Amino acid sequence: MKKILLKTKETLITGIPNKIVKTALKTKQYMGSKMSSNKYLLQDKHTFKPLLIEIEDRPASPVGHFILWAVIGVFFIAIIWLSISEIDVVVTARGKLVPSGDIKTVQSTYNGNIIKILVKEGDSVKKGQVLIKTDTNILDTQMNAKAEVIKEFDLKMLRLSALIDNNIFEYKNYMNPQYYQHEKDIYNNEKNSYFQQLSMLEEKINDVSQKMNIARLEKQNKQTNLDEQKIKQAQYKKVIDIIPRIQYTEVQYKVVFLKNEIKTYDNKLLGLNNNLQELSKQKELLRFTNNSKYYKELREIDQAKNKLIAEVETLNLQKYKYNIISPVDGYILKLDMTTHDGVVTPAQKLMTIVPNTVKLRAMVDVENKDIGYIGDKIEALLKIDTFDFQKYGFIHAKLKKISNSSVEREKVGLVYEAELVLESNHLLYNGQKKLLKPGMTVTAEMKVGKRKLIEFFIYPAIKYFNEGMSII
Question: What angle do CA 275, 278, 280 make, to 5 degrees?
Fold first, then answer.
């Protein structure tokens, strides 16, 4: 029996390369050793068959069938997914941000020499900020001279107020001692002259008052004497028949005389009183005249002072305008004057400022090959080169208009200019706003439609097939 089996093996092995036979035998031995350690594998009916017969008779592994059908399934699922899925068709265009709206042009209103330029292009500025300093020495000289005159007017007004109120005139901190002494001398002269006239009038008033007192005293004496004579006259009249007639006549004469004397004193007192009133009026008139003169000078000086103050304010405004200032909050877009120690003339353009309230727009160049895809109401995403879009994101924009004709661009060729309107002028990062500035370069991705994924694989094949057929 063993001889028959050996003979059969030799017959089967005949014609097979030795290398394959050796490999099969080694595999057989290895599998035999494994199966000998596994009691379940010993039950396989193909275990003890010859090597090549065992390989032919043993059924294929189900793992292979599973892998094959899995690959086929994945292939069909991929085809279905490619047929259903769509992606956006995007046209990419390069450009930059430009301001849209009221751009402020800063101009000079006066002739002047530039001392220093305080800003440069791209700087942020605030309203009222000095941008360019100019030489204002002439204005400063005029303002200082007028300010000195205003101080002199203040000193004069103080002197006049002191004369009106009869107060002491003092101004110890005045910067010009000579002029202060001049005003002090005028004050003293005016005051001395006034008091001299006033003293003369008061002296006359005192003299008249004294005369009136004397007249009143004499009148009183005369009145006393008259009363005594009247009493005596009444007594004599009772005994007129027993006394000499001449006594009664003398008393009667004295009564008449004293009455005339008293009347004379009354007239004298009336005249003195009128004289006193006149002198009092002169005294009041002197005070009124002097005060009126002082008030008039005070008004004139006050008017002149106010006029000078207005002139100083005008010069100050001119000085303010001499220094070129920013009219709005914004950014320096372009600086036309860059030379220090230069000369500016009225209406000369110095710089351009973009207000913060002005919206930005993107001007991009659409290549000629992409212009056919651009239509109305195109939306776009703007990626700002300055800010990494993966970190800061992007800006949404809409196509506003596109040029009707192409323009030549160096190193690019013919392109069409497209204007995109931004929905926002800033990017947000960690809650902080990053403002966009004019001149920043951008990449615009404009969505022009959708396309199925499978088309990217089919269209090249169709294209090459059509090209091949056209050649045939």
Answer: 110
- One-letter amino acid at 372 equals G
Separation CA 401–CA 417 (nearest Å): 9
Q: What is the pLDDT along the chain (472 residues), one digit of tens a residue?
A: 434 333 444 444 444 455 454 555 555 555 555 444 444 444 455 566 666 666 666 666 677 778 888 999 998 898 888 778 777 778 889 999 888 767 888 887 777 777 788 888 878 888 888 888 877 777 788 888 888 888 888 888 888 888 888 888 777 666 677 777 888 888 888 888 888 888 888 888 888 888 888 888 888 888 888 888 888 878 877 777 777 778 778 888 888 888 888 888 888 888 888 888 888 888 888 888 888 888 898 999 999 999 999 988 888 877 776 778 888 888 888 888 777 767 777 778 888 888 877 788 889 999 888 888 787 778 888 999 888 888 888 888 988 888 888 888 888 889 999 888 888 888 887 777 787 887 889 999 888 877 777 777 776 766 666 666 665 5
* 127 lies in the same domain as 209: no
The total number of structural domains in the chain stands at 4
**Structural domain of residue 26, as residue ranges?**
2-59
Q: Are 399 and 374 in contact (CB under 8 A)?
A: yes
Residue 38 three-state SS? coil
Tell me, what CATH number does 95's domain have?
Answer: 2.40.30.170
Tell me: do 152 and 282 sit in the same domain. yes
Chain centroid to CA 128: how far?
A: 7
Domain containing 335 — which CATH number? 2.40.50.100
Verdict on whether the full-model pTM lies above 0.70: no
Residue 81 lies in a domain: no
Instruction: Give a yes or no: residue 75 inside a domain.
Output: no
272 plus 238 within the same structural domain: yes
